Each structure stands twice: as structure tokens, then as C-alpha cells.
């Protein structure tokens, strides 16, 4: 199993990896040592002015983003470069079984799952990577209306959405908009009693592991049925 982890705004690959050690340990224990976990760093380095409310005057050294959102138009500035980066990353380190994202990375996970399902891919996104078997979105959200094409028709990839009931960074309704954009979205919606973070309690990790296992088992069954049909 090969898993892609996408960090949140102001984080980095190594930073996200450090924050999810308990989750990684459980995944490796459950799915075996052959499981590989990848934590790329977004291509856009942030400056102090990109991080509102920061208490320091020193420029950040380990803060990155998948895009910057325009306050006036809602455009995701830099998204094209990110998709080109991901296309190359998928070709170099894939194929991936699934993608797990947090916050901005969760929004990107939804976008990525959608793009891989479709024939009309953005310019620069040239990978021949197959569809993901699943996506997991922690504190994710739906992109603005200008990106409506990624949600219509609904995302077919199985997506588990996880919401922190005390999350004050990503409003619940923004995540619910993403949930509604996924086929069977409300059937795969889980709340945890915390804030804006990826929960690592035993029960929440159990939900993650169970979801991944069910997606992989279902995918394997579908592949076997296709193999049988091809010889009939």
C-alpha cells in the first residue's frame, strides 16, 4: 500500500509527518511494513504577510501552502503550479492507493480525487495515474464556485470526511459543502470532539483504518470480478 499525505496551510511535509506519528504507527502495524507513506511539501513557501495573526516578526522557515487564496476573487493563486507538481510527484512516487489530507491539504485531496476520475484534466496535469481507491479529508472544504467543475458531477471516489466539533478554523458548513459534493458523502462523515487537527485517539484511528481496509477489500473484489469477466 502506498499512501499520499497532504499537509495543511503553513505546514510542510516533514512537519505534517511529525504531527501524525501515532497515526503512521497504526497504519504500518495494520497494513504491514511494506506500506509506504509519502509526505511531500507544497511548492509555495509562505512569508510572514501570508500568515495573519502570527505573534512573531520573524519570517517563517517551514511554512508552505498549496495555493494562496485571493481575497477579492476567490482564485486559488498558484494552484496550477501545485497540480503540475503533484502530477510529477504521482509519476515519480506512485502509484498511490489513496490520499489523506488535512485542512488545505484535505481540500486538495478532494480536488485530486476528482481530477483523476475525469478525462478533461488541467493543463500541466499529465500523469497517467489511475483513480485513487479512497481519499480521507480532515477539516477539508470545497473550493469556491469558480472551481465548480470539479464537483459536478459528484466525486465518485470514496471519501471519508472528518470534522472537529470544536474546529474554529474551518467552519463546519464549508466541510459539509465538500461532503455534499461526494457520492455517499453523508454516509462517510465522522465527527471528533476536538478542534482543528488530525485526531490520533484510538477510536479515531480505528475509524481511519477500518475505512481504508474496507475500500481496499472492495477494490480487490472488483478487480477479481473484472478478471473473471474478461475470460468469460
Q: What does this molecule look like?
A:
This protein has 232 residues and is of the alpha/beta class. Helix content is 37%, strand content 16%. The chain has helices spanning 13-19, 21-31, 79-93, 104-117, 172-180, 202-231, and strands at residues 2-6, 36-38, 44-45, 64-65, 68-69, 76-77, 98-102, 134-138, 158-164, 189-192. The strands form three sheets. A six-stranded parallel beta sheet has the order 2-1-7-8-9-10, with helices on both faces. The chain has a two-stranded antiparallel sheet with strand order 3-4. A two-stranded antiparallel sheet has the order 5-6. The model is unreliable at 224-231 (pLDDT under 50).
Instruction: Give the beta-strand count.
Output: 10
Order of helices and strands: EHHEEEEEHEHEEHEH
Structural class: alpha/beta
Average pLDDT metric: 92
Based on CA inertia axes, which overall geometry fits? globular
Report the sheet with the most strands, covering strand number, pairing sense and barrel closure: 6 strands, parallel
Which sequence of strands runs across the widest sheet? 2-1-7-8-9-10
Report how far apart the termini are: 30 Å
| Uncertain ranges | 224-231
Cα-based radius of gyration, to the nearest Å? 17 Å
What are the defining features of this structure?
two-stranded antiparallel ribbon; six-stranded parallel β-sheet; 16% strand; 10 strands; globular; alpha/beta
Amino acid at each position: 500500500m502506498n499512501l499520499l499525505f497532504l499537509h495543511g496551510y503553513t505546514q510542510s511535509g516533514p512537519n505534517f509527518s511529525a504531527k501524525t506519528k501515532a497515526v503512521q504507527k497504526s497504519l504500518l502495524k495494520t497494513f504491514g511494513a511494506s506500506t509506504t507513506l509519502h509526505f511531500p511539501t507544497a511548492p509555495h513557501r509562505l512569508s510572514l504577510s501570508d500568515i495573519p495573526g502570527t505573534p512573531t516578526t520573524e519570517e517563517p522557515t517551514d511554512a508552505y501552502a498549496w495555493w494562496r487564496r485571493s481575497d477579492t476573487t476567490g482564485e486559488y493563486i498558484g494552484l496550477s503550479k501545485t497540480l503540475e507538481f503533484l502530477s510529477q510527484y504521482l509519476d515519480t512516487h506512485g502509484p498511490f492507493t489513496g490520499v489523506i489530507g488535512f485542512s488545505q491539504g484535505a481540500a486538495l485531496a478532494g480536488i485530486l480525487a476528482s481530477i483523476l476520475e475525469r478525462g478533461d484534466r488541467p493543463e500541466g496535469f499529465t500523469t497517467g495515474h489511475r483513480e485513487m481507491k479512497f481519499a480521507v479529508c480532515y477539516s477539508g472544504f470545497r473550493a469556491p464556485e469558480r472551481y465548480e467543475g470539479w464537483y459536478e458531477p459528484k466525486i465518485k471516489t470514496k471519501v471519508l470526511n472528518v470534522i472537529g466539533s470544536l474546529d474554529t478554523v474551518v467552519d463546519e458548513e464549508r466541510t459539509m459543502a465538500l461532503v455534499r459534493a461526494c457520492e455517499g458523502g453523508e454516509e462517510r462523515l465522522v465527527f471528533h470532539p476536538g478542534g482543528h487537527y488530525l485526531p490520533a485517539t484510538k477510536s479515531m484511528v480505528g475509524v481511519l483504518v477500518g475505512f481504508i481496509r474496507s475500500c481496499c477489500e472492495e477494490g480487490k473484489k472488483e478487480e477479481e470480478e473484472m478478471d473473471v469477466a474478461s475470460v468469460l
